[in-house]
Design a protein that fits this description.
Shape of chain B: globular
Radius of gyration of chain A: 22 Å
Distance between the termini of chain A: 29 Å
CATH class of the largest domain in chain A: Alpha Beta
Number of strands of chain A: 14
Structural class of chain B: mainly alpha
Number of domains of chain B: 1
Number of helices of chain A: 11
Order of helices and strands of chain B: HHHHHHHHHHHH
Shape of chain A: elongated
Number of domains of chain A: 2
Strand content of chain B: under 5%
Number of helices of chain B: 12
Radius of gyration of chain B: 19 Å
Order of helices and strands of chain A: EEEHEEHEHHHEHEHEEHEHEEHEH
Low-confidence stretches of chain A: none
Structural class of chain A: alpha/beta
CATH architecture of the largest domain in chain A: 3-Layer(aba) Sandwich
Helix content of chain B: over 70%
Largest sheet of chain A: 6 strands, mixed
Low-confidence stretches of chain B: none
Mean pLDDT of chain B: 93
Number of strands of chain B: 0
CATH superfamily of the largest domain in chain A: P-loop containing nucleotide triphosphate hydrolases
Oligomer: heterodimer
Chain lengths: 306, 257
């Protein structure tokens, strides 16, 4: 690879007692790239962030941030973070918080720049405890960027925010990327990952189950599931128009399709004994289950053939 | 970057950290008012109103020392004990730990804030004692009392730090009060230790405020008469023990969840 990765995790595993939070996870982030770690609660997103920040130690594997070991002071001078569901002292004003935090860094942005980039200029003299949820989150964002970092970790930055305030924060994040800052973002909203990310990594039960551009991921997550009973074989059904994925669920067949109408048309043409037909939207959770099952199947087959 | 600029930058961190810490505490009336008023109020009740003639009329002077100790413990124990516990639970400490903030700046700022509050409390006691209690001390005695009390905040900062790191934010205020008030009473801060039974007097040796009070009383020659270095040595040892315990808790929460 010609460009050195800004963040690199290699085969990282971490367990808490019996619970395996991360299982041989590898990923890389380049400069100016927004990578979204997408996963349900408990998928291991926050664990991975905490490992990269040096807040925990991994059981095995290696982690580096800007070519330093995770948590190294020299790395910390060049990163910014929003941690999940943190609160800051309420009696301090926005500008006071930013001014103090900026002092920790070698080449911070000016107070004015930080305020502008976080859309906080109007609110700089407000106390933190007088702010709304979205405004508070933008103060956290301000602290993450005030040091003019090369990489920013955002752990579920928009969780619990309404649509408008979420959009405002998205704009701030996109501006960051335009200046060449790398962003590692965790979220459980597919929409958010889609709007922001160059690349999405799907995490499920501590494993990476899919990785690709938002278009590629949406193909796997988007679309609808056509579910029915029939005596046709899997091989037959996979041949139908625009079927992205096939799965057998007990007595049922499940087809995943982006072009539901086309698939349906060809299905009804071929299949005369169709029963109990339902069509439903793929939820993120479904998709995680599908993808991870899929992967397990593939793994088993790989192991068999090996 | 040259070293003097580096120095200036570090100094700036410490200055801003201390300034914001003080502002943060000062803007919380629930912290400021009890911290500043309780010692003074107790002093007025127990040294000026009720026992003024106690200890051959020396009660107002004696209690400058003991309520001074009581007063300075409050901000140290609460600032660290409750403040750190809450910021730890809110995840704020974690945010700071992910930043390049020198952790010493965080602690130094809290120590300085505790000392600033201590200064206000001590001065308010001095003025009240001198004006309304006819307390007459030499300039050297006033200055020594002030100095020993200010330095005396350190062991309680250490104790508070350990409690703050070990306790949950919600239970911290109750637990800190549960330690602060009985410990103060049993150390002879409210009622002179001479009036205690010998068992209680021996027990007081286990409590850090007792030793600090003895050091401060020695300035006026009102202590029990043990050498100063014994009390100072025990206080130092206790501080180190608290710091060691704090370090253990700190490691545990840094390697968290």
């Amino acid at each position: 690879m010609s460009i050195a990765a800004i963040i690199e995790a290699k085969k990282v595993s971490k367990s808490f007692g019996q619970f395996k939070a991360l299982d041989r996870v590898s990923l890389q982030i380049q400069a100016g790239e927004i990578l979204a770690l997408l996963g349900a609660n408990g998928a291991g997103k926050t664990t991975l962030i905490n490992l990269l920040l040096g807040r925990m130690r991994s059981d095995s594997g290696s982690l580096s941030v800007l070519n330093y070991p995770a948590g190294h002071i020299k790395a910390r001078k060049r990163i910014g973070t929003i941690l999940q569901s943190a609160q800051m002292p309420g009696t301090l004003k926005v500008a006071e918080h930013i001014e103090l935090f900026s002092s920790y860094y070698d080449q911070p942005l000016s107070l004015q720049e930080t305020l502008e980039k976080s859309q906080l200029t109007q609110l700089k003299d407000k106390r933190f405890d007088q702010l709304s949820g979205g405004q508070k989150q933008r103060v956290f964002f301000a602290l993450a960027i005030c040091g003019n970092p090369e990489v920013v970790f955002l752990d579920e930055p928009t969780v619990g925010l309404d649509v408008d305030t979420r959009r405002q924060l998205w704009r701030c994040i996109r501006d960051l990327k335009d200046q060449g800052t790398a962003v590692l973002l965790t979220t459980h909203y597919l929409e958010e990952a889609d709007m922001l990310a160059d690349r999405i990594v799907l995490l499920s039960d501590g494993r990476i189950t899919a990785e690709g551009s938002p278009e590629q991921i949406k193909k796997r997550l988007g679309g609808k599931i056509i579910r029915f009973k029939s005596n046709l074989t899997a091989a037959h059904l996979s041949q139908l128009t625009a079927v992205d994925d096939y799965q057998a669920k007990g007595n049922y067949h499940e087809l995943l399709s982006q072009q539901t109408e086309a698939t349906l048309r060809s299905l009804l043409n071929v299949c005369t004994d169709i029963q109990d037909l339902t069509i439903s939207q793929v939820t993120l959770e479904d998709a995680f289950i599908n993808l991870s099952e899929h992967q397990t199947h593939e793994k088993i087959e790989q192991e068999k053939s090996a | 970057m040259n070293t003097s600029a580096n120095w200036q930058r570090s100094l700036n961190i410490y200055y801003l950290e201390a300034k914001t810490e003080f502002l943060k505490a000062f803007r919380m009336p629930a912290f400021t008012i009890p911290s500043l008023l309780f010692p003074l109020m107790f002093y007025v009740f127990f040294a000026l109103i009720f026992n003024r003639q106690g200890m051959n009329g020396q009660m107002p002077a004696y209690m400058i020392a003991t309520y001074g100790v009581f007063g300075i413990i409050g901000p140290a124990l609460f600032g660290f004990g409750v403040g750190v516990a809450i910021e730890k639970d809110q995840g704020w400490l974690a945010v700071k730990q992910c930043s390049p903030m020198p952790i010493s700046a965080y602690f130094m700022a809290r120590i300085l804030t505790a000392m600033q509050f201590a200064l206000l409390i001590i001065l308010s006691l001095f003025i009240t004692g001198a004006l309304f209690g006819d307390v007459v001390l030499t300039t050297g005695q006033w200055a020594a009392t002030l100095l020993v009390l200010l330095i005396g905040t350190l062991p309680f900062c250490a104790l508070g730090l350990w409690l703050g790191l070990a306790l949950k934010g919600q239970s911290a205020p109750a637990v800190v009060n549960l330690i602060y008030l009985p410990m103060s009473f049993l150390s002879g801060l409210w009622i002179p230790i001479e009036l205690f039974s010998s068992v209680l007097q021996s027990f007081a040796w286990l409590l850090p405020p007792f030793h600090l009070a003895q050091l401060v009383l020695k300035i006026q020659g009102l202590d029990l008469g043990h050498p100063w270095f014994i009390h100072a040595g025990i206080l130092t040892a206790m501080s180190l023990l608290f710091l060691l315990l704090a370090r253990r808790s700190f490691k545990r929460i840094s390697e968290a969840k």
